[in-house]
Amino acid sequence: MMSQMSEALPSHRKISDEQFAFLAKYLSSKYGLRVPPEKRILLESRLISRLNSLKFDSITEYLDYVFKSKEAHHEYQLFVEQITTHKTFFFREAYQFDYLTKLLPDYTQKVGVNHVVNIWSAGCSTGEEVYTLGMVLNEKRATMPHLDFRITGTDVSVPSLKKAAKGLYSIIESENIPDNLKTKYFNNQMTAHGPMINFSNREVVAKIRLGVLNLNKKHYNLPNTFDFIFCRNVIIYFDAKTRSEVLERMVERLRPGGYLFLGHSETALGTNLPLKSIQPTIYQKI
Ligand SMILES: C[S@@+](CC[C@H](N)C(=O)[O-])C[C@H]1O[C@@H](n2cnc3c(N)ncnc32)[C@H](O)[C@@H]1O
User: Does 65 contact ligand 1 (Cβ within 6 A)?
Assistant: First the structure.
């Protein structure tokens, strides 16, 4: 279907070999993203959608605007948003949150009950992972009243982070949230886009920080080390070199004894990192 659409495009609205080569190289060196030839049609359709919104006539015109114009700062953010994948949902890979809540009593015994548990959601997209962690940790306080925590959510996409900061989700986006938690943590809100729910638990919101971070940067400007790092469905989009460099930098940021959670099709096996595999996708720093 996609390729039929592409065939029907006039040539100035198709991505040329040179443009594809330029973008693949640029996205790889700046963000570590792997853009194989199979992604060409997808990339083209995402660019077309932006150039249609801006009423540009050709991909050349659009790319010139994004890369050469001084006023294109906002469009550059939308360009990054378009070329990255943001699929996420509440309680994704729920077994990992169950695992986290089960290990917390022993973990806090070891690090000291006054220790503030620090969690990093790296590549948090539109915030569902961050708020899931907020609810899960806050619920755990029923049996661990001393438990205190902070959650840092980072992503390279500014529009996604803006949505995360709003904490506003459609009924479909929120369908995985158990009803009791929906009632407890969210308010209903009628918006121009229809009925939505808004994360409204102030105590939890106060424990969350969101910020822009390109994981392909050599230095992560983060204030602390973490007890738990969730980096799920992010490194799968990176080339092999970036994947291993990012894992290395993340593990540097993990406390010994802390845990790393990856996505279901990602692995840290085969690296020389000081990690013990607990079960597929869950690792503990030695
Ligand atoms: C598919 S989402 C995963 C969201 C969430 N972690 C989950 O598993 O549901 C991937 C996210 O990684 C982000 N991302 C891609 N490249 C990145 C980079 N170089 N640095 C930081 N985040 C990046 C994207 O912007 C996107 O929001």
Answer: no
